[in-house]
Design a protein that fits this description.
Structural class: mainly alpha
Helix content: over 70%
Largest sheet: 2 strands, antiparallel
Strand content: under 5%
Number of strands: 2
Radius of gyration: 24 Å
Order of helices and strands: HHHHHHHHHHHHHHHHHHHHHEEHH
Strand order of the largest sheet: 1-2
Oligomer: single chain
Distance between the termini: 23 Å
Number of helices: 23
Length: 501
């Protein structure tokens, strides 16, 4: 049995001494792929997945990217269904803020507690399955809420759905970031989240033209059946992941990988309380997501006020913005192949700052165009902050990842503040609330490009997971092969070789 596969111990994160003891007898990356099984994986054990090649990681990355797309599709459909629910129940703007609080509040609770514990205790596969099941239960709960036309039931259902999605994010984001050569971490997550953005754009279009075409706005029967369909679909997806080949990348693997990169990055193992880049990343993500949701929640009302157009025309403008958001993620992924990700983040955050300021001062269609460009430049920020924040966390990678996902709870605060300013002033002035959030997030790439440049560039330059004449760099089989060649050159016999160890 490969080391690390089997009984899960009491502690969730490995000690350095445990990792050092395993190094000479750790599995290879080939064994990591061969042992993609349904048993629990100790987070303290080395699995060989720290040196997965691009070829070895393609299948699991593709499976999780499909999950991102389907998850984005279901999330986009959820927005339409929620709007139907609000119209049918005559939910006020204040109550609508409560709905966002219920959804994003789940992110504040789940990842730092049960979601983070599950991913450290049982691994990525089981966290995917649990997240999908929670999501499915939340979707099922919309049926009785629709029958009873209950606002409280609707809030509770949204909280459960948010719990499921936050659990999925707690596993999906770090899995994509760590499964494969470390130098491609930002690129992988950017590409995967690009497909999530496509799903989010497609769902509302299909909903308005297929699912809810020519229906009574107060009739919830189609909504009920759609939620039931979503529930059945995600339960089936959970079964698919139960049987899917998903390698486990443990915190011990990430600690080993960080040690192997130390010559380039200057990595030194630090306790979690001294991971200042992580803490800054959590604050930046909290403010960024809050500002992003604040802009999205007020985009249509802003467009109506600025360009004096109808709600339907404003919705079309928002659809264009969502399309640009998806395009922006693919564009950012392409840039990351030729530019350092910290530079890409700086460029896109600069664009966000410039155009949100312009949106505050420009009236008419020009103002709408400025706010639309904000959506384009927002595109790469979340996944790039995520991956750059967990760089160099080593044995704290999973816990740190769960904290960054918890920062999505910023979406519960900023929309309410933006709406409050809009009610008392104008929607143009209300954009100052997202501007403040974006400003805090903008400070993060400045910090990365000044204080953390050597560390981040070192991870980008490492060749772990790539092949040379001796095998896969960073893999135990390559180290054994190189040691064997050295012994042969010195004329040491196999027996003497064993003694020499």
């Amino acid at each position: 049995m490969p080391f690390g596969i089997g009984k899960v111990g009491k502690r969730e994160e490995p000690e350095l001494t445990e990792i050092y003891e395993q190094q000479q007898r750790r599995p290879s990356n080939v064994e990591a792929i061969q042992n993609m099984q349904r048993k629990s994986v100790s987070n303290r054990g080395l699995t060989g997945a720290s040196a997965l090649t691009v070829r070895q990681s393609i299948l699991p990355i593709t499976l999780v990217t499909i999950l991102f797309f389907l998850w984005g599709f279901a999330y986009g459909l959820l927005d339409v269904l929620n709007a139907k629910f609000q119209n049918s129940l005559n939910i006020t703007a204040a109550k609508a803020g409560g709905l966002q609080g219920a959804y994003f509040g789940a992110y504040l609770i789940g990842p730092p507690t049960y979601s983070g514990w599950i991913v450290r205790k049982f691994g990525y596969r089981w966290t995917f399955i649990v997240g999908l099941c929670i999501y499915g239960v939340g979707a099922l709960m919309f049926w009785p809420s629709a029958v009873k036309r209950s606002f409280g039931g609707f809030c509770g259902s949204l909280f459960i759905v948010g719990s499921g999605l936050s659990t999925l994010e707690t596993s999906a984001n770090p899995f994509i970031a760590t499964c494969g050569p470390p130098r491609l971490s930002e690129f992988r997550l950017e590409i995967s989240q690009s497909f999530q953005a496509i799903g989010s754009v497609m769902a509302p279009l299909l909903a308005s033209r297929v699912f809810f075409k020519n229906t009574d706005p107060t009739d919830l029967s189609n909504v009920q059946w759609t939620y039931l369909g979503i529930a059945g679909f995600v339960f089936c997806l959970a079964v698919v992941f139960f049987f899917s080949p998903i390698p486990e990348v443990t915190d011990a693997d990430m600690a080993l990988q960080a040690e192997q990169c130390a010559g380039l990055t200057g990595y030194v193992d630090k306790p979690l309380r001294n991971q200042y880049k992580l803490f800054f990343g959590v604050a930046a993500q909290f403010c960024y997501v809050g500002a992003q949701v604040g802009v999205a929640s007020q985009f249509i009302k802003y467009s109506v006020e600025s360009a004096k157009i109808s709600d339907a025309a404003a919705s079309d403008r928002y659809a264009i913005g969502q399309g640009l958001f998806a395009i922006g993620r693919f564009a950012a992924a392409g840039l990351m192949m030729v530019m350092k990700p910290r530079w890409v983040l700086m460029i896109f955050m600069t664009g966000v700052m410039v155009f949100i300021a312009c949106a505050m001062g420009v009236e008419g269609e020009g103002g709408v165009a400025m706010l639309t460009l904000v959506l384009f430049f927002e595109s790469c920020v979340f996944p790039t902050i995520f991956t750059l924040s967990i760089r160099g966390l080593g044995r704290h990678t999973k816990r740190g990842s769960s904290w960054i996902v918890a920062a999505v709870s910023g979406g519960a605060l900023f929309p309410s503040l933006t709406g409050l300013v809009a009610d008392n002033k104008t929607y143009h002035i209300a954009m100052c609330v997202p501007l403040v959030g974006f400003f805090v997030a903008f400070a993060f790439p400045i910090y990365l490009n000044t204080v953390c440049a050597q560390e981040l560039d070192g991870f980008r330059e490492t060749k772990i997971g790539y092949h040379d004449e001796d095998g896969t760099i960073g893999d135990i089989s390559r180290e054994e092969r190189r040691a064997s060649v050295v012994h042969e050159e010195k004329g040491i016999s196999p027996v003497e070789k064993e003694v020499s160890y």
